[in-house]
Amino acid sequence: MVKLKHVYPLYLANEAQQPNSDLEVTDKYTGEVAFRCALADSKTIEAGIAATVEAAEPMARMASYERQNVLQHCVDRFKERFDELAHALCVEAGKPINDAEGEVTRLIDTFRIAAEESVRMTGEVQPLDISKRARGYQGIWKRVPIGPCSFISPFNFPLNLAAHKIAPAIAVGCPFVMKPASRTPLGAIIMGEVLAETDLPKGAFSILPASRDGADLFTEDERLKLLSFTGSPGVGWELKAKAGKKKVVLELGGNAAVIVDRDADLDDAVERIIFGAFYQSGQSCIGVQRIIIHADIYDDLQGRLVARAGKLVAGNPHDRETFIGPMIDVKEAKRLDGWIQEAVQGGATLLCGGKREGAMLAATLLENVDRSATLVREEAFGPVAILSRFTDFDAALDEVNDSKFGLQAGIFTHDLFKTLDAWDRLEVGGVVINDVPSYRVDNMPYGGVKDSGLGREGVRFAMEDMTEIRNLVIRRRETAAAKHHMGE
User: Fold this and answer.
1) Is 285 a catalytic residue?
2) Active-site residue, 399 included
3) Domains identified in the chain and CATH numbers
4) Residues 6+ apart with CB under 8 A from 159
5) pLDDT tens sequence across 388-432
6) 218-242 pLDDT tens trace
7) Which of 127, 283, 362, 403 lies in disulfide reach of 355, CB 3.0 to 4.6 Å?
8) List 251, 332, 379, 457, catalytic entry
9) Looking at 101, 285, 332, 457, which residue is catalytic?
10) Are 264 and 300 in contact (CB under 8 A)?
């Protein structure tokens, strides 16, 4: 088994520094301290931001192939360090090993996509002679880097959600400072270690674990031109209010729903819904939280889901058989356990699960949950899902929309017209047909509406957010006859 170091540095202006070892990071399964990490203070964060300002011009001058070489180096090194990265996820995030390896694969995919896209940043030639006064004028626009960026990433996907900020920034030539989640900083630190092996200009990146209270500069400093935050809605919208003039991209929470129509393949639907509800121990913003089932198949599907959920193995995330590991900490497990008990006291039927031991919460399914319950209205972010039934497809769409969130939704149906109706009517960033809303490929546009956020990730789409359009207008010299014709 791969062994982790006892102490890890932070990265300031491309260089590893060990000013302290103040951040304790626990093994989320055992609860014991697994390693310690340097913690950035406000002075260090200020130095990182200042370094990005100095690096902005040399980063913008990098040739496309040079940026591509940096990204390809990362792809190669992540492949070489695959087992180490997966082990780190098991420890710091409590992520079951199969999920951990899947995330490392996505990390590699994301950097590979960015390497490909880094040499595809195109613009457009635009005719301007749309009226007599513009005769002889032509426009050309291109995308240029927006400048220094600030990134804040969450605990649940410490590698891939950090990668969806870092890789596009390098692809377009934006220097950045990153604050990884203090409970799971190691994935970003390892990325910093790999980036430090490259020829990026001095100050191109800083990876700075910091306490939430000490990280105001990541949001408020006016030298930063973009803030990209992934995390909880409460924190995200608060940061936006403090961000000033900079562009803000928010990837926030959800309580994703899946509709199962009566023509669905139930064997397939069961496997995909169980995965969508309980992978990552339910700690995914697009995890299945609401399961809306046609009345004609409700009893059959309910029985299958309960039976399948009861067979999921919970335990040590390093074991290959484990499907459900610990939640990120005991506090979060207690919170969700309280929501379950609240729903039951309000009349809900507990179908399976509902048992907690420390940070471990069993796979839980409920039905007859009141629509006003916290478990319906808020983001569960744990291994819990709610079953309800419908008879009218339009009413099912309305139920999906009856949420302050709007990230993704899934529908199991073979009806093309229902698919198109759902695509038109659902107030979400993405509709997934014959699969769960938990599905994501790293090149697709990903993001939400309403309280689920602003903007889109997915490498090419993040690159657009990290660039600005710069226009060029060319006036051709006209002959005397042409000038006369133009009325000059």
Assistant:
1) yes
2) no
3) 7-252+452-471 (3.40.605.10), 257-433 (3.40.309.10)
4) 85, 89, 103, 104, 106, 107, 187, 188, 191
5) 999 999 999 999 999 999 999 999 999 999 999 999 999 999 999
6) 999 999 999 999 999 999 999 999 9
7) 362
8) 251
9) 285
10) no
